[in-house]
Each structure stands twice: as C-alpha cells, then as structure tokens.
Amino acid sequence: MPKITDILKEVKTHTSKLFNTQLPEHLHYHNFTHTSYVVESAQNIGEAEGLQETELYVLGIAAWWHDIGYLHVSEGHEALSQELAIEYLRKKKTSEKIIRKVTGCIAATKMPQSPQNHIEEVICDADLAHLAAKDFMKRCSFLRLEWEAMRGETMSELEWLEINNNFMNKHSYFTDYGKKVLNIQKKKNIQKINRLIKAEKEKISLNSK
Questions:
Q1: Distance CA 143, CA 140 (A)
Q2: Whether the model pTM is above 0.85
Q3: Which residues contact 69 (CB under 8 A, 6 or more apart)?
Q4: pLDDT tens digits, residue range 45-82?
Q5: Which CATH class is domain 4-207?
Q6: For residues 4 and 6, what is the distance between their CA atoms, to the nearest angstrom?
Q7: DSSP for residue 171
Q8: E strand or H helix at 136, and its extent?
C-alpha cells in the first residue's frame, strides 16, 4: 500500500492535469486557482487547529478533489467529485478508511455545509476562506462571471452586491481559527460591501431623477 504522502503528490499532479485539460470555458471561478487556494487554506487552518500529519494529508487529498466534479456538472458536483476520487484512490490501492475520510470531507462542502467532525469543519472553512481574503472582491468577480455565463444573463451591480451581503451575513465559520482569525477580515469585507451597496443605491436614485 503506498504512503499517503506519495498519494497526495500524485493527486496534486493528476487533478492539476484535469483542470488544465478539461476545464470548460465558463468556469471562471471553480478552477485550478480556486482549488489551489482551498488546498493552501486547508493546510493553514488544519495546522492551526492541531490536526495530525495523516489528517492533514487526507485534508489535502480532499481539497484537490472537492471541485473536480465541476468539470462535468454544476448541480451535484460534490457527489461526482466523490465518485471520481474513490475510483482514483482505489486504483492507487488507498485504504478504505482514508477514502471514507476523503469523501466525507468532499460531501461536507456541499451547500449548506454540513461537517460531521473536526477535519470536515476545516475543509468547509477552507472552501469559504475567500470570504476573509483581502482581495475578496476580485475573487468574487470571477464567481460572478461564472454565474452569469451559466445563467445566460447579466446581473446588476446592486443585485450582485446584495447576494454577497446576504450570503456573508448568514455564513459562520466552524473552526476556532475561522471564528478568531478569518472573521476579522470577513467583517471588514462585509463593511466594504455595505458601503458599496449604499453608494450604488444613491447612484440609482440620482439617475432616476
């Protein structure tokens, strides 16, 4: 049976190749950039939360696989990501115990997030760590492009801002790191969105006169 450290390296290489060769044009957000950011965030949060080495490797494997299903479908992509991960990991003769942990992490990222244990809480927070990024608005602009491409319609600036504002105010991080560290910048991002909403409404009001 291969070492889990070797499996992680192979998973990174394999999933990176999938993103490079199979990424649909409309996926402006759910791509290699987002996935690698989630992998890095999962590592940082996992270490801060005191996860053991094996758990960190499981977390890394799950993070690399969690959105691979998006290459084929949007609705239900988590289930497809799990299926593809299972198929790959079994070919690599990965233990069923590790596979169950990996698929559990992937399943937990489905909205609304539903983590059942500590490691699943970590990947959930990592998947939405961009809410606490200093370049949050830039990252979300790619999500907006993706949504508009999939829907075939353009959203107004106010509509987009309010969608983000509603989501961020309803969202809560699960881990101590998320609550104590990520929330600091997330609150600043919410304040910025509120300022932009106010400015956009004032602009609309002036244009309607």
A1: 5
A2: yes
A3: 76, 77, 78, 79, 80, 81, 82, 83, 84
A4: 999 999 999 999 999 999 999 999 999 999 999 999 99
A5: mainly alpha
A6: 5
A7: -
A8: helix 136-151
